[in-house]
Amino acid sequence: MTMKASTRQVNGVTVVDMSGRITLGEGSVILRDTVRDLLGKEQKKILLNLGDVTYIDSSGIGELVSAFTSVRNQGGELKLLNLTKKVHDLLQITKLYTVFDIKDDETAAVGSFK
Amino acid sequence: MKNRVSYTLDSTLDSVNKAESTAAQFAAGAGFNADEQDNIAMAVREAAVNAVLHGNAHDPAKKVFLVCESTGDALVITVTDQGRGLDPDCIPDPLSPENLMKGSGRGIFLIRAFMDEVRFRNTHPGTEITLIKHVGRRPANAKEETT
User: Fold this and answer.
1) How much is the pLDDT for B1?
2) Nearest chain A Cα to B97, which residue?
3) ipTM entry
4) pLDDT at B87 > cutoff 90
5) DSSP-derived secondary structure for chain A
6) Residue of A22, A58, A72, A89 to mutate, testing the B interface (most B Cβ within 10 Å of its Cβ)
7) Closest residue on chain B to A85 (Cα)
8) Which CATH number fits domain B4-146: 2.40.50.100, 3.30.565.10, 3.40.630.120, 2.60.40.10?
9) What homologous superfamily does CATH list for A4-107?
10) Which of A20, B15, B99, B120 is deepest in the core (most CB within 10 A)?
């Protein structure tokens, strides 16, 4: 299953609904390009909805970290929403779970942006 | 399903997917549960990514060799490249504070996390990595040997 990403605006926050696999190659590139495009449009409040992401490999994890850093370096915020158990476990064992701001309710997540 | 298969693969992302799917099939056939199948497949995927990207550096003249074998009490998978070789002792710890926010360097860490045993062997030129998962063993810290 290839990765797809679509964006929508909710109260000034860009929600990116992602589905499929974030892996080396197409999936990682789509994530990178999506975040880059948003930053280029000064949309710096980004909520990545990973609820339909079935799989992330180490390249995908690295891309999430790079996206987080890029957004933060431009004064924005990037948060994660609706992690599946697999993604949750991966972020736990890589000690990244406490690095990201992770939410499980979209309304609360949108309201948490500064 | 056969107890042993071997493939000679090109240094491409398609080969990474082939290695992953082959490992998943073998893991299912060996009796591992769904989570274990996913973890084994990911470990093999990471090994194949390393072989294609870092070992063979996408060189079309270099191949990746994949062997999957089910021994009855374990699944043994080897991935071999024809690259410059790898010193596993020189791989930075991705959990250390200075590396935690890096965009790469977690592949071998995940392999070690998901497999029971991980062995590296320099094949001059190239690297062979052997991944072993025992049937029926609870998750434990991976043992590692270098030869």
Assistant:
1) 62
2) A95
3) 0.90
4) no
5) ---EEEEEEETTEEEEEEEEEE-TTHHHHHHHHHHHHHHHTT--EEEEEEEEEEEE-HHHHHHHHHHHHHHHHTT-EEEEE---HHHHHHHHHTT-TTTSEEES-HHHHHHT--
6) A58
7) B35
8) 3.30.565.10
9) STAS domain (3.30.750.24)
10) B15
